[in-house]
């Protein structure tokens, strides 16, 4: 063995401690790259499998319209398409009042059921022409319970009139008609029958053909693949719900996140290696002086670098794959999902290439820095530039700590830049993860605050009469379902609901349309009737209103006692009144009177029919309410948000929110008895489909109570929130943990390299207090650079929202309500601003970044203190 080789090996053994830090940081950096990117791939595969369950494992659908010849259809054929299936859809069903219900009847073949992952809560799919399976929302819309075996009336409108037939319910389907992507004019069937059963109600109007993509090609650009088939003359749909619902929002963002993570890992490794080779320059100079030539120096650099980094980097890239395969196996065994771990050679090679590239780049920089002119640059004599700087420092009376820190920044500018970019980029990714979790939580909170598992309401048929020109024989009448505070749900029905297992909360409310407001400044003209909402003071609706508008002028005690009301002024005119002016709305502090509405009539039960379009005057009886209840306006909300308009409906000029005590006062004045007519039922984890949901549906059906169930939607939104929180939460924790370890190791290496300089400062007389202040100042100055990640992250999120809205605008003509603008708009600027306001949290972001900067500052200072104590420098 030559002397040179012995010298190299001996040098490696003597520097085990120094190389231990380098190897550890290299291992962590490579682990950062490999584990985070691999976890992203695993979560993306898991999310895709979940999408297949929720939105169907198909990529394209094509509609064959039997009624409109202008819609062209042709079978799609391509070697990448694995299977196809057909779904036929018939006419829209009519409800019990023979009004369109939004429910369609149709058929599904076995292929669509298979790759569409369409499952049942209970029962089976129909096999004979008189059997039907329906989703839960359709059953509630048509007024039926969830019990199997009941007879379902199916009525459709045709040229001859209303055609009726009956089916027997054999199964309840997990809803797919509303969740799958489809064209709005071609809805998917909510009720499934056989082909012969569909012919009993009429011929199918159109067929929807679904095409499944072969799993071998699922990693291609599916949007570009689907765009080759999309034509204007055909009714084709690309299933973006499945293939564009990816980690980070889309395929492009997923690839961009991979690139950013890869770049972040490269910066960490590059910073480490550049710091290492820079500090080794003096040793290379000594070897050069002892007779080593340039080639031997470069061989030594290459040997040291590969020995201390490559084995550990390769090990760090292998370990996450083994752990990922085991985790996927465990998840698949505990769920219905297939084994979804995949090894992507391209990703592994890109990570390996990135690590090797960063190491070889550091070697190249070290080789360039080991040339003779660079090794001899720092001589013992003082240059003219240094003399000039020293004189300037002496004139400005700068302290030693500031001079020292400035010199360190100038000596290692590239390492400083790499460190700042690494910290800021990592913080940007962490902010994106946090806001992704916040976005998922806000979407669930929006639904949970606005919807309960079951909404039940009871309305009665009332007739409003309008007289013309004071002529008793010229009048018109229109019947409609109205809320009546004296006609609601029976006590027996409420007593049946209360003891059911799985009910967490029941919010009882009284809504009323049989009264109106009158006040001193009101004009004589008629306006749209106000809708009264009487509820408990702890109801979700009232809590939400107080949270959104604060209502500082409202006397809560007076409100609870029924002495004040909250008035929502929607600012809408009565469409029937054109010549007369709009009434002057009341103000806060005004006294108004609650009185019964005029011109309300009802029919005796024996004369009530399903159609009351032309009632006979002799059959109608006046619905008279003689009471008068004065009350004070406690708060007025002008032009409330779209959410409140949707809650009260668009046919009301005012919404009145009041307490149940006021409802009792009104009932006492009218000599009537109150009845609850709206229930909002929230379920808990103890509920089940069999014992809770089916029983509730049966009670509502038995008592002729309208109901809507949001259980499926709430469950899916909750599951989506949990998935998003787990995906981005684990990515966040993994990145943060490795990032803090890397920063700690970086500080340890830095303090090790500065050991002699710190000792020199101590010998020159620097006190312990000043030394601590210097360390804190340096750590704080470096940590505050991560603040630039806040505007950068918001620019990235704004770009994501903008591109998403632009894509929706290009495909579907986006027009949404803008809270910032207070109107419907298709302006992408306002929609993006609304998305940023609704789905990001600037306050949480700033708090997190400041907390992270504090942790980094504390870590840098404590690392230096520990190192100095260990080396007995202080």
What do you see in this structure?
There is one protein chain. By secondary structure, the protein is α+β, with helices and mostly antiparallel strands. Among the domains are: 182 residues, no CATH class; 258 residues, no CATH class. It is 50% helix and 19% strand. It is built from 27 helices and 26 strands. Strands 1, 2, 3, 4, 5, 6, 7, 8, 9 and 10 form a ten-stranded mixed sheet that branches. Strands 15-18-21-17-22-16-14-23-11-24 form a ten-stranded mixed sheet, sandwiched between helices. Strands 13-12-19-20 form a four-stranded antiparallel sheet, with no helix packed on it. Helix 2 runs antiparallel to helix 22. About 2% of the residues have low confidence.
Provide keyphrases for this structure.
874 residues; alpha+beta; ten-stranded mixed β-sheet; 19% strand; globular
Number of helices: 27
| Mean pLDDT rating | 79
The largest sheet is: 10 strands, mixed
Report the sheet-strand fraction: 15-25%
Low-pLDDT stretches: 573-582, 606-614
Distance between the termini: 44 Å
Shape: globular
Number of strands: 26
What is the radius of gyration computed over CA atoms, rounded to a whole number of angstroms? 36 Å
- The computed structural class is alpha+beta
How much helicity do the residues have? Answer: 40-55%
List the SSEs and their pairings.
Layout (H helix, E strand, L loop, with lengths): L2 H12 L1 H40 L4 E6 L15 E14 L5 E9 L1 H6 L4 E4 L7 E5 H7 L8 E8 L2 E13 L17 E2 L2 H7 L4 E8 L8 H6 L8 E3 L1 H4 L7 H29 L1 H9 L4 H40 L11 H25 L2 H4 L8 H13 L3 H12 L1 H38 L3 E4 L2 E9 L2 E12 L8 H7 L5 E10 L2 E4 L12 E5 L4 H10 L6 H5 L3 E6 L21 E6 L3 E3 L18 E2 L5 E11 L3 H7 L5 E6 H11 L7 E6 L5 H14 L3 E4 L1 H43 L1 H9 L4 H16 L5 H24 L3 E3 L4 E3 L2 H12 L2 H30 L3
Helix pairs in contact: 2-8, 2-10, 2-11, 2-22, 8-11, 8-15, 8-22, 10-11, 15-22, 15-25, 22-27, 24-27, 25-26
């Amino acid at each position: 063995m030559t002397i040179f080789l012995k010298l190299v090996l001996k040098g490696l053994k003597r520097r085990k401690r120094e190389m231990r830090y380098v190897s550890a940081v290299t291992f962590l950096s490579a682990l950062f790259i490999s584990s985070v990117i691999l976890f992203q791939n695993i979560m993306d595969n898991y999310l895709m499998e979940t999408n297949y369950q929720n939105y169907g494992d198909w990529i394209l659908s094509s509609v064959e319209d039997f009624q409109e010849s202008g819609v062209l259809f042709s079978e799609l054929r391509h070697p990448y398409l694995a299977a196809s299936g057909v779904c036929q859809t018939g006419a829209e069903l009519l409800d019990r009042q023979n009004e369109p219900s939004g429910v369609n009847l149709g058929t599904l073949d076995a292929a669509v059921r298979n790759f569409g992952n369409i499952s049942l809560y209970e029962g089976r799919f129909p096999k004979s022409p008189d059997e039907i399976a329906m989703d839960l929302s359709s059953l509630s819309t048509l007024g039926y319970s969830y019990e199997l075996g009941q007879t379902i009336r199916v009525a459709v409108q045709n040229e001859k009139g209303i055609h009726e037939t009956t089916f027997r319910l054999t199964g309840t389907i997990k809803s797919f008609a509303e969740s799958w992507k489809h064209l709005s004019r071609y809805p998917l069937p909510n009720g499934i029958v056989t082909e012969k059963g569909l012919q009993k109600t009429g011929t199918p109007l159109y067929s929807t053909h679904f095409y499944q993509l072969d799993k071998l090609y699922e990693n291609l650009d599916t949007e570009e693949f689907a765009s080759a088939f999309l034509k204007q003359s055909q009714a084709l749909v690309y299933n973006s719900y499945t293939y564009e619902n990816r980690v980070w929002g889309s395929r492009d963002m997923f690839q961009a996140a991979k690139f950013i993570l890869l770049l972040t890992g490269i910066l960490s490794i590059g910073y480490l290696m550049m710091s290492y080779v820079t500090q080794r320059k003096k040793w290379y100079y000594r070897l050069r002086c002892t007779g080593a030539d340039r080639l031997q120096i470069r061989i030594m650099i290459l040997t040291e670098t590969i020995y201390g980094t490559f084995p550990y980097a390769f090990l760090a890239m292998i370990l996450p794959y083994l752990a990922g395969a085991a985790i996927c196996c465990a998840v698949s065994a505990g769920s219905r999902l297939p084994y979804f771990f995949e090894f992507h050679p391209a990703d592994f090679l890109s990570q390996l290439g990135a690590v090797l590239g960063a190491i070889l780049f550091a070697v190249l920089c070290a080789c360039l820095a080991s040339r003779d002119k660079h090794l001899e640059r720092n001589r013992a004599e003082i240059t003219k530039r240094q003399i000039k700087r020293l004189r300037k420092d002496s004139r400005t009376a700068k302290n030693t700590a500031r001079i020292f820190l400035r010199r360190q920044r100038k000596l290692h500018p590239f390492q400083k830049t790499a460190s700042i970019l690494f910290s800021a980029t990592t913080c940007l990714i962490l902010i994106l993860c946090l806001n992704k979790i916040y976005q998922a939580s806000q979407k669930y909170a929006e639904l949970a605050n606005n919807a309960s598992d079951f909404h039940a309401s009871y309305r009665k048929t009332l007739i409003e009469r309008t007289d013309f020109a004071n002529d008793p024989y010229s009048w018109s009448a229109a019947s409609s379902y109205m809320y009546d505070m004296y006609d609601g749900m029976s006590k027996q029905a409420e007593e049946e609901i209360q003891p059911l297992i799985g009910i967490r909360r029941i919010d009882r409310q009284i809504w009323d349309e049989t009264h109106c407001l009158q006040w001193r400044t009101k004009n004589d003209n008629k306006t749209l009737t106000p809708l009264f909402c009487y509820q408990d003071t702890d109801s979700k609706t009232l809590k939400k209103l107080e949270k959104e508008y604060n209502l500082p002028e409202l006397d809560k005690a007076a409100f609870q006692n029924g002495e004040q009301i909250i008035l929502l002024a929607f600012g809408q005119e009565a469409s029937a009144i054109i010549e007369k002016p709009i009434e002057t709305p009341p103000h806060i502090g005004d006294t108004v009177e609650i009185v019964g509405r005029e011109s309300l009539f009802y029919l005796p039960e024996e004369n009530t029919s399903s159609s009351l379009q032309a009632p006979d005057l002799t059959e109608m009886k006046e619905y008279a309410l003689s009471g008068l209840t004065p009350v004070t306006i406690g708060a007025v909300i002008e032009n409330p948000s779209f959410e409140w308009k949707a809650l009260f409906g668009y046919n009301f000029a005012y919404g009145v929110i009041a307490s149940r005590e006021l409802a009792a006062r009104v009932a006492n004045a009218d000599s009537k008895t109150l009845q609850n007519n709206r229930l909002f039922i929230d379920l808990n984890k103890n509920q089940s489909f069999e014992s809770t949901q089916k029983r509730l549906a049966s009670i509502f059906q038995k008592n002729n109570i309208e109901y809507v169930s949001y259980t499926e939607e709430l469950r899916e939104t909750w599951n989506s929130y949990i998935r998003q929180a787990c995906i981005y939460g684990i990515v966040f924790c993994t990145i943060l943990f490795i990032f803090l370890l890397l920063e700690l190791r970086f500080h340890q290496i830095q303090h090790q390299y500065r050991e002699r300089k710190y000792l020199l400062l101590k010998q020159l007389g620097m006190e312990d207090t000043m030394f601590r202040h210097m360390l804190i100042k340096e750590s704080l100055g470096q940590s505050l650079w991560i603040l630039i990640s806040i505007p950068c992250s918001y620019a990235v999120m704004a770009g994501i929202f903008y591109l998403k809205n632009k894509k929706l605008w290009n495909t579907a003509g986006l027009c949404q309500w803008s809270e910032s603008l207070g109107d419907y708009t298709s302006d992408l600027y306002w929609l993006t601003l609304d998305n940023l306001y609704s789905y990001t949290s600037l306050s949480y972001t700033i708090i997190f970044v400041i907390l992270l900067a504090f942790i980094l500052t504390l870590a840098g200072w404590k690392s230096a203190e520990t190192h100095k104590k260990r080396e007995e420098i202080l």
